[in-house]
């Protein structure tokens, strides 16, 4: 069995009118930003897929790399390095030379939404890209969903009902039919960390669970 390159929305994707209008506004305000659907980051043959919500306006929407340039990446990427899923020095730039090892990162919605809030139609429109991505990851063993939207995107992508699989921090979901194991985490956003809803130790606990699942000995 061999992998294939998953499909990706065009840079000028028109699937979601609200996001298109917001993109055009940002192209005028921030002409040097990436301002388009942000591609996934990390090897397609990885065993772990991290699924976030959507790009941040002055983070991934600026740099063109998931969780790069915003506060959430300042917790996510050092955590991945701590657990052996990354190498190099994270500089919060797409050209910092930071690399992911056995881990890939994507978002449920690939374009930046107004006020960092997606709507159901946008999540549905972007779902085929997540489906394709998961099919391409032939070595996929574990998925880490960041936040309720990431969790629901994975559950619906796999064809399950949200009511059957409830989101909960550091909850392990053993999905049927040999599917990858799903782990939930509160999103590593500034709001969650500033309010104490998510601490570094709590976030690390999720990845300890993943390492235990994959027998990585961390």
Features:
218 residues, alpha/beta, Uracil-DNA Glycosylase, subunit E, five-stranded mixed beta sheet, two-stranded antiparallel ribbon, 7 helices, 7 strands, 12% strand
Structure characterization notes:
The protein has 7 helices and 7 strands. The protein is an alpha/beta fold and 218 residues long. The strands form 2 sheets. A 5-stranded mixed beta sheet has the order 4-1-5-7-6. A hairpin with a 7-residue loop joins strand 6 (172-173) and strand 7 (181-185). The chain starts with 16 loop residues before the first helix and ends in a 5-residue tail after the last helix.
What secondary-structure arrangement, pairings included, does this model have?
Layout: H1 17-29, E1 48-52, H2 60-63, H3 71-82, E2 86-87, E3 99-100, E4 103-107, H4 120-136, E5 142-146, H5 147-157, E6 172-173, E7 181-185, H6 190-194, H7 200-213
Parallel strand pairs: 1-4, 1-5, 5-7
Antiparallel strand pairs: 2-3, 6-7
Helix pairs in contact: 4-5
How do the strands of the widest beta sheet line up side by side?
A: 4-1-5-7-6
Mean pLDDT over all positions: 94
CATH topology annotation: Uracil-DNA Glycosylase, subunit E
End-to-end gap:
29 Å
Helix share of residues? 25-40%
Report the biggest beta sheet as strand number plus sense, adding barrel if it closes: 5 strands, mixed
Question: What are the low-pLDDT stretches, counting only 5+ consecutive residues below 50?
Answer: none
Overall radius of gyration: 16 Å
Instruction: Give the helix/strand class.
Output: alpha/beta
Q: Any idea what the shape is?
A: globular
Instruction: Indicate the CATH class.
Output: Alpha Beta
Q: Determine the strand fraction and express it as a percent band.
A: 5-15%
Count every helix, treating DSSP H or I runs of 4 or more residues as helices: 7
CATH architecture annotation? 3-Layer(aba) Sandwich
> How many strand segments?
7
N-to-C order of helices and strands: HEHHEEEHEHEEHH
CATH superfamily: Uracil-DNA glycosylase-like domain
Summed up, the domain count is: 1
